[in-house]
Design brief:
about 525 residues, alpha/beta, seven-stranded mixed sheet, about 15% strand
């Protein structure tokens, strides 16, 4: 790198960091707005609309509802010829996790505790990358740096929803490099970048059991008191609920037979509610269950798929149903890129780890006292205020895994890593240190800390500055970007991994996902 390139990058980074500091109040207001909306997967209507308005106000060209997904978007801003860099927002929340930004357990105002809430929090993920994006744009204009910025809105991350669709539709094809961020949630991946061990495969499928012909179930014409199959005295078809419960119990009972008990794989389920009547004297017509599984590699995921497909056929037969299968996601393991990980961590080290000031400490201590605990002088987990190199994080991560295992846990950034060089990095979210003998904190504690401006600000500032610094290096240092692209092409050639879903795959937006969009004051209870 020449002295001129180094000087341009350094001064531009300082300009970007100053922009974030100067706009911190706005950024925290924006974060609070998204955090309070807390809309669940595929139903993030208001959150997405806010991002679209904000980006257009900042001069971006925005495609509203990109790739046929109403709660997705794709934004572009160009300042002349140069590299094209991409980052993204997520904004889906999790049903059953409503928590106010308070120091005691309490759902957000007007809501049941079963309403959605931000757990990771994706609210901070989106506002952090938006901060980095807008700071980069400001620095590019101030210093005459050319290039293009892409920013996508990615709904339904909790079920690997949009990124596979955006990828199949070509939305990442123009990117020269991608920066992927997530607030920390699992040690040792805190204030660092992933090195070799990326996230693994993720499969998710909905099985819908349909009872469309209950009248063909063993109806006896010899019974004069049962002229119709729905009669109280008739033997009725088992129906969709029976098929669903058989699918659930058989699949859960067979977990030990799906894969060996090693490798860090996991299996989860959700029942989708629609088409159900009350407990009337009728066979239930439709029942749907979603299974999601996370495995280190595709072969393991396929073994689980084979078991589930067989179980679905058997359960449908027992319930006098047909079964419809619908893919929700089918994601490949991620590709690593050492060149991007190195330049990003250099920028994270320049910024430094998050730091919790006296106001943040006071809020954390209030939580400890509300739980009947002694307030600590240093309540936050030490790792949240420390950096760890990607190489050291990798070493510690490998200590938790079998030697043969190449990937660990899951996240849908992996799909993006097959279209362009990508770095995945983590900045601490606020988390409290355990108090000996007190056991783990209840889940609402971390959810609440994620919504408090005082405690979430360090995450947004650190991540935003790191994104901006990395982007500005890639825009002004051709050698770094060339190295990252060469590494990407080498890895693709050595291990091709074609997409697991067809190019015309349709996002499952029409399924009955939880929806909480009843307006306040309408007289209808909000969840």
């Amino acid at each position: 790198m020449s002295g001129g390139e180094k000087g341009t990058a350094a001064s531009a980074k300082e300009t970007a960091r100053e922009w974030i500091e100067a706009h911190l109040g706005e950024l925290l207001d924006w974060h609070t707005h998204i955090w309070e909306l807390a809309e669940p997967a595929w139903r993030e209507y208001d959150s997405q609309a806010w991002y679209v308005r904000r980006l257009r106000a900042e001069g971006f060209e925005v495609e509203d509802g990109s790739a046929g997904m109403p709660t997705a978007f794709s934004a572009r801003w160009t300042n002349g010829e140069g590299p094209t860099l991409l980052t993204y927002a997520e904004y889906d929340a999790v049903p059953g996790n409503s928590q106010a930004a308070r120091t005691h357990e309490e759902p957000r105002e007007g809501l049941s505790r079963f309403a959605p809430g931000h757990t990771d929090p994706h609210s901070a993920l989106g506002i952090s990358t938006l901060a980095g994006l807008l700071a980069t744009k400001h620095a590019m204009e101030a210093h005459g740096i050319t290039g293009t910025l892409l920013y996508t809105g990615e709904p339904a991350e909790k079920m690997h929803g949009s990124k596979v669709v955006h990828g199949l539709r070509g939305y990442y094809d123009d990117a020269d490099a991608i920066v992927s961020f997530h607030p920390f949630y699992m040690l040792p991946l805190c204030n660092t970048a992933r090195w070799d061990t990326q996230c693994g495969a993720y499969y998710s499928k909905v099985y819908s059991f349909i009872c469309d012909a209950p009248e063909t179930w063993q109806h006896s014409t010899a019974d004069p008191h049962s002229p119709i199959p729905a009669s109280h005295s008739a033997a009725r078809a088992p129906g969709a609920n029976l098929a669903l419960t058989q699918m659930y119990t058989s699949s859960r009972a067979m977990l030990d037979s799906m894969l060996p008990a090693s490798g860090g794989w996991s299996f989860s389920d959700a029942i989708l509610a629609d088409g159900q009547a009350t407990a009337d004297n009728l066979p239930q017509r439709v029942a749907r269950i979603q299974f999601s599984w996370r495995t280190p590699d595709i072969e393991m995921a396929e073994h689980i798929l084979a078991v589930l497909d067989r179980n679905a056929e058997a359960a449908a037969m027992m319930g006098h149903c047909t079964v419809e299968e619908r893919w929700i996601a089918r994601s490949r393991p991620g590709r690593t890129n050492h060149a991007l990980a190195s330049v990003l961590f250099d920028n994270l080290a320049e910024v430094g780890p998050p730091h919790y000031d006296a106001e943040a400490v006071a809020r954390a201590q209030e939580i400890q006292l509300s739980l009947g605990l002694e307030a600590g002088d240093h309540p936050f987990l030490p790792e949240t205020e420390q950096l760890i190199t990607p190489q050291e994080a990798e070493r510690l991560l490998r200590d938790q895994m079998p030697a043969w295992q190449r990937n660990w846990t899951s996240d849908d950034y992996v799909e993006m890593s097959h279209y362009a060089p990508l770095v995945r990095f983590y900045v601490a979210r606020p988390a409290l240190s355990s108090i000996p003998g007190a056991g783990p904190y209840p889940a609402w504690v971390m959810n609440a800390l994620g919504g408090m401006p005082e405690t979430i600000a360090p995450t947004i500032v650190t991540a935003g500055k790191t994104v901006a610094g990395t982007f500005l290096d890639l825009l002004t240092r051709p050698d770094v970007l060339a190295e990252a692209k060469e590494e990407f092409e080498t890895r693709v050639a050595a291990e091709p991994m074609p997409a697991l879903l067809p190019p015309d795959f349709e996002p499952p937006i029409d399924l009955p996902w939880p929806d909480y969009r009843v307006e306040r004051g309408s007289g209808v209870r909000r969840w």
